Amino acid sequence: MSLTNQPDPEARRRVVAQDLENVMHPIVQHRALETSQIVVTGGQGSTIVDADGSTYLDAMAGLWCVNIGYGRTELAEIAAEQMQQIAYYPHTAMNLPAARLGEQINTLMGGDYHTYFVNSGSEANEAGFKVARQYAKHEFPGQFRFKTIARHYAYHGTTLATLAAGGMGERKTKFEPYAGEFIHVPAPTCYRCPLGLESGKCGMACAKLIEATIQAEGPQTVAEIIVEPIMSAVGVAVPPDEYLPMVERICRKYDVLLHVDEVINGFGRTGKMFAHQHYGISPDIMAIAKGIVSAYLPIAATVVKNKVFESFLGEVAEARQVMQVNTYGGHPVSAAVAVRNIEIMLEEKLPERAATMGAYLMEGFKDRLFRHGITGDIRGKGLLIGIELVTDRESKVQLDGALVQGVVDFCKANGVIVGRSGGGTRHSNTIVLSPPLVITRTECDMLIEVLDKALEATVAKMNGAA
Ligand code: PMP
């Protein structure tokens, strides 16, 4: 169904009944689905269409991923063409689209990297943990470097190891205990500094704690540090400019690999192709997914610096090669679509566009939303933005969860999909935004307008007027 197709309420009812009877959905409560579900049937640009004919401005780009926007039919043609040529063969061999995609990624990274293909962001991080451990086995034979330093409130995926690396209470506690090789340190969530320090006067204490943690654990036990450069799911935490360079210096000092999670941050989202490029750092391992193919098909990757890659070279009998295989890794159809997706991003200068539209949105939000006392903080980079809601700006007490959800619901009722930061953290009171990079100024204006109205309605509700 395209934007012009007719709504089909009867077909919609059938789908809802069929789904509720047979399907389990992630994160959302089944009961809630009975009343609040979207049955998505089409999309164009930044807009999605429900089977009932309603359209929504999708200010979340799906799950932070449809970077080039919906409805790019040329990608369907590329997928069909590739499927007719050769749909699949394992990536122990080679195929044209995956080779080209590897080359594109290496070029975007400045030419010193190799790429290992997987299917999701979780797998990309998981493979990253394993690469770091295997690298340590090769390079530090007398040591036992198996630990990953990670950060509180981080989100790195849904597998057991990526959950263990993560730090989102609600998401991880149901599956405890974990094996214990992930050591957590405070994150630069500066609006609510975990160390109680004042932003700009903290001497980067949280980065320094990483060094103290490595020393306490014993450097000979630490393989890597994982950081999402700009933390997304926690409510968009942009680190101070000095933070990541300091983390990198600590990594170099202790021969610890720097693993960046660019699953959301990557592919233009923050105004540069990769978010770490804002900070002049050079990761050893990088997980990418989502924007690599704008979610048109599943593909993701673990990108490793050549110094790491070279550690995996040797005679076959030495078993230095990557000791894992993903059946769908380097899938030719997904890779072909990803190649064209990246070309489109470059042709349409979408990272630059994200910087421009992000600045426009930011200005609009700051202009309009601070008039509501419940707007605590507005932060972000490019088209990755968080608006933290509080009972009042002075006390910074978090706005009640039901009221924050009310903002999300108000926006939806008014045709705009916005997100909410991850539950179970100290930051679940933040509205998060991650629209397609093709969002127009008119759509930005709509987003600002609807959020303004949503906050106004929330304040009125708090004052008992509604
Ligand atoms: N890392 C980050 C930063 C993410 O936000 C996500 C998913 N939102 C993942 C990893 C996991 O990606 P996937 O859902 O594709 O496994």
From TrEMBL:
Pfam families: Aminotran_3. Gene3D superfamilies: Aspartate Aminotransferase, domain 1, Type I PLP-dependent aspartate aminotransferase-like (Major domain). Keywords: Aminotransferase, Pyridoxal phosphate, Transferase. Its cofactor is pyridoxal 5'-phosphate. InterPro entries: Aminotrans_3 (IPR005814), Aminotrans_3_PPA_site (IPR049704), PyrdxlP-dep_Trfase (IPR015424), PyrdxlP-dep_Trfase_major (IPR015421), PyrdxlP-dep_Trfase_small (IPR015422). PANTHER family: AMINOTRANSFERASE, AMINOTRANSFERASE CLASS-III. NCBIfam families: PRK07678.1. This is Aminotransferase class III-fold pyridoxal phosphate-dependent enzyme. It comes from Neoroseomonas eburnea.
